[in-house]
């Protein structure tokens, strides 16, 4: 499972802010796969698929933007049928403090979508007073996502495909996992791009198998179309991807053979 890491790409400083970890049962997450498909390095010795949960802190100069908001205060005692176990590896508030970031000082949190493991600390029950861990932040999300965030009506801003929400940060609509699922394209300022693609893919295996839907995809045909667009885009020169659930292979590219090539972010 990934720990906190920081990388500088051009004008951007990217930090993964860990919050939780889940051990998945591969054939239940990917119903089209079989046990034989999982004799790969993507699984643990116990045969589970490791997935991290957290957020991405994006810094450019004095501007700070958080993408997604972790798992929040979910206990993990009631795990879904496709999970083997769940635990907090480090709370997101603690991880932000380690980066010197006061959540109350963040003015923007952009969401790929609003499933619990991406919106946890932005929900009303995340902190006392119902304002979430980020009491002053505006919420930025794609059209079609449900109203589940703290102060959603007064704080949420919905954006369209291609809309710029901050200097060098654009929305890219990749629907299917949810109706409003949105990736965020980050311009590094030196000719490179980073795509924070949320749950458009959950594991590097989907780079090679974009036809494998995830059990939670709302519109499986649309999700596959989005995955194929994403893989094609990540194969371009100078384009990196950030897959929040990609265990210890979160930052990487698609190489010439059509496989995920991770940029190692830890020892």
Automatic annotation (TrEMBL):
SUPFAM superfamilies: Metallo-hydrolase/oxidoreductase
Record key words, sorted: Hydrolase, Metal-binding, Zinc
Coiled coil: none
Metallo-beta-lactamase domain: residues covered: 52-242
InterPro entries referenced in this protein's UniProt entry, alphabetically: MBL_superfamily_lactonases, Metallo-B-lactamas, RibonucZ/Hydroxyglut_hydro
Family of the protein in this entry: Belongs to the metallo-beta-lactamase superfamily.
Name the record gives this protein: MBL fold metallo-hydrolase
Natural source organism: Amycolatopsis silviterrae
Lineage: Bacteria, Bacillati, Actinomycetota, Actinomycetes, Pseudonocardiales
């Amino acid at each position: 499972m990934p720990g906190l890491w920081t990388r500088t790409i051009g004008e951007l400083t990217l930090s993964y802010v860990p919050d939780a970890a889940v051990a998945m049962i591969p054939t239940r997450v990917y119903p089209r796969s079989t046990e034989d498909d999982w004799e790969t390095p993507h699984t643990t010795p116990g045969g589970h698929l490791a997935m991290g949960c957290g957020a991405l802190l994006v810094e450019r100069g004095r501007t700070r933007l958080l993408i997604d908001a972790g798992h929040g205060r979910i206990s993990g005692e009631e795990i879904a049928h496709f999970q083997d176990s769940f635990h907090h590896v480090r709370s997101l508030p603690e991880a932000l403090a380690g980066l010197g970031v006061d959540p109350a000082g963040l003015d923007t949190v952009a969401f790929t979508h609003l499933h619990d493991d991406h919106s946890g600390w932005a929900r009303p029950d995340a902190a006392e007073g119902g304002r979430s861990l980020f009491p002053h932040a505006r919420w930025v999300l794609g059209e079609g996502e449900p109203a589940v965030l703290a102060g959603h009506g007064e704080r949420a801003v919905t954006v369209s495909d291609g809309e710029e929400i901050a200097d060098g940060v654009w929305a890219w609509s990749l629907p299917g996992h949810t109706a409003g699922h949105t990736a965020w394209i980050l311009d590094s300022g030196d000719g490179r791009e980073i795509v924070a693609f949320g749950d458009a893919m959950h594991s590097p295996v989907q780079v090679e198998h974009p036809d494998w839907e995830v059990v939670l995809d709302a519109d499986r045909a649309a999700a596959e179309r989005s995955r194929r667009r994403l893989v094609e885009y990540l194969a371009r020169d100078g384009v990196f991807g950030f897959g929040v659930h990609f265990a210890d292979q979160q930052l990487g590219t698609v190489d010439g053979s059509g496989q995920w090539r991770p940029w190692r972010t830890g020892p």
